[in-house]
């Protein structure tokens, strides 16, 4: 596609002359005869380069340049000021306003084309450097944990899995719960009522950055970093602010090697946005026929979000020892897919761990539960090392 150039000049002859000259070189030309019209044009179409006269009625070229530089979409578009004003001070003002180059009228066509080509080449190189820089930003793994319904132990699993990844594999780990107004992560680990997530959700979207997210992380004694949800039910109003959650997720992934997100149950607007960004999704279910039917629909919904089937794992948690439980083989038939992990019931140990504000895996590292958690952690680390 041909590069587009916006030419802004109140002199019609100059517009036609410069426009024709550059069209012959294969550029797409857009014309404006004043600063106001130029700004309106850039609201709908961002040109690859702008040639801008200084002395125009209304908004002059200096002010147009300043305004373009203040707008994110046009902040890096190369601008060549083209003016009969040739004093050194005029050029200084132009460069201070944000211009990339300054040409004095009249100029030879060869020089004009040369300056245009140089500005476009420099802009393209800068864009390539920016893309390369963005590629080199550390991107950690995102693990989403979602249960078919409430009360299946997603928070307990998230805590112990995070600690296993941190302590056994020596990875930096963030753990958060995207459930404003109904947080339990802080309570389970003996921290005071958390407001760190609420504070981020109350921050203007464009002001959320890595440093701001880091400031809200709380270091737990286990070595993991926590972003806590409030237990104040009034904060539930933030729940559907999906763009904020997605933005926070992106920054978390740039801070630590692994970020685990307890998403609670079901597919809310927020969960839909976050799950699409996850490298791995753990779906928690239980061995009851009605829950397995719900789980099958949940898997279908997550797949429709574009999450690859290989990234989805089923975790079957036996919360209670019961003769009415469906066997793992029958559960796989109901789900029409394999169960990846099975967690044995340990209600007494879990209650004891929560009462002490400690992860169960650290209190009973040799228990069956700890071994089962370790198998999930090993699988996650192995998948991560293959990417």
Provide a descriptive summary of the structure in words.
- Helix content is 47%, strand content 16%.
- It is of the alpha/beta class and 387 residues long.
- Strands 8-9-7-10-6-11-12-13 form an eight-stranded mixed β-sheet, sandwiched between helices.
- The model has no long low-confidence stretch (mean pLDDT 88).
List the helices and strands and how they pair.
Layout: E1 4-8, H1 12-23, E2 28-32, H2 35-44, E3 49-52, H3 61-70, E4 79-83, H4 88-97, E5 101-104, H5 109-136, E6 141-147, H6 154-169, E7 173-177, H7 185-188, H8 196-201, H9 210-216, E8 218-219, E9 225-227, H10 242-255, E10 258-265, H11 269-275, E11 280-285, H12 289-304, E12 312-317, H13 328-335, E13 341-343, H14 347-356, H15 360-363, H16 368-386
Parallel strand pairs: 1-2, 1-3, 3-4, 4-5, 6-10, 6-11, 7-9, 7-10, 11-12, 12-13
Antiparallel strand pairs: 8-9
Helix pairs in contact: 2-3, 6-16, 10-11
Q: Indicate the radius of gyration in whole angstroms.
A: 29 Å
Give the SSE order as H and E letters. EHEHEHEHEHEHEHHHEEHEHEHEHEHHH
Instruction: State the end-to-end distance.
Output: 34 Å
Trace the largest sheet across and list its strands: 8-9-7-10-6-11-12-13
- The total count of helices amounts to 16
What is the residue-mean pLDDT, rounded to a whole number? 88
Helix content: 40-55%
Main pleated-sheet profile: 8 strands, mixed
List low-confidence stretches.
none
Can you count the beta strands? Answer: 13
The general outline is: elongated
Which structural class is indicated by helix and strand composition?
A: alpha/beta
Strand content: 15-25%
